[in-house]
Structure to design on (227 residues):
């Protein structure tokens, strides 16, 4: 069965510091992988996704993620954190590469200190 | 990008009453919509897949008689929480599929007293 594990339910960084949010997955098929951001009391916004091709994926707001098959990882990074990046981040995998059904990780809350 | 509107954004109801939540795709047609439930500080759990013109597909452990889903048109899916109880209090989020891209509503916070 497919699953997603996000290491660390809460990450705190200083403004301007590197952001690294970890995500590991298990999938029986080549996965489609996603990162979403959720602001308080709001729905989810897609940051980026990996389907096929280049393993380094660039998304919105300066975020990027690298698909590493050997490590079954899809970690999210941003070189320099902004205060506005404070939010909940979810990694997700599409279990059958068809349709819109997604399996989400537990989420990581990112705090940015001034 | 496409817009998904979810209404209401929050609702408080008494135990035993039913609550309807609407999910609309505003600028595209969605034959498939999804309903998720999110507890505080936890991930989103898929409850059911809503299919236009046919019965919804429920995930294991989700009571279909408790959470009624209707997808009568290509732009509207509704989730009705019947005979709500305090344990049904949660954040409910819908998403709509446009060409295998998911767009999410802003969510509904349900509080059952």
């Amino acid at each position: 069965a497919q699953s997603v594990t996000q290491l660390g339910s809460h990450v705190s960084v200083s403004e301007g510091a590197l952001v690294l949010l970890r995500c590991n997955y298990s999938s029986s098929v080549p996965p489609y992988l996603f990162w979403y951001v959720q602001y308080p009391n709001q729905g989810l916004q897609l940051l980026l996704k990996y389907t096929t091709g280049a393993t380094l994926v660039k998304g919105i707001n300066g975020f990027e993620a690298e698909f590493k098959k050997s490590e079954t990882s899809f970690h999210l990074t941003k070189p320099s954190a902004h205060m506005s990046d404070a939010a909940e981040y979810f990694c997700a995998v599409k279990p059958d590469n068809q349709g819109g059904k997604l399996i989400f990780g537990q989420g990581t809350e990112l705090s940015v200190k001034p | 990008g496409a817009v998904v509107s979810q209404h209401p954004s929050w609702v408080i109801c008494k135990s035993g009453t039913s609550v309807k939540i609407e999910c609309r795709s505003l600028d595209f047609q969605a034959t498939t919509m999804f309903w998720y439930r999110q507890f505080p500080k936890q991930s989103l759990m898929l409850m059911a897949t809503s299919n236009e013109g046919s019965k919804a597909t429920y995930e294991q452990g989700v009571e279909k008689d408790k959470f009624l889903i209707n997808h009568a048109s290509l732009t509207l899916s509704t989730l009705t929480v019947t005979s709500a109880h305090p344990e049904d209090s949660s954040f409910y989020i819908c998403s709509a599929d446009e060409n295998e891209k998911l767009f999410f509503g802003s969510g509904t916070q349900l509080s059952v007293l």
Chain B has no helices and eleven strands. The interface with chain A takes residues 4, 6, 9, 32, 34, 41-46, 49, 91, 93, 95-97, 100-102, 104-107, 109 of chain B (CB under 8 Å).
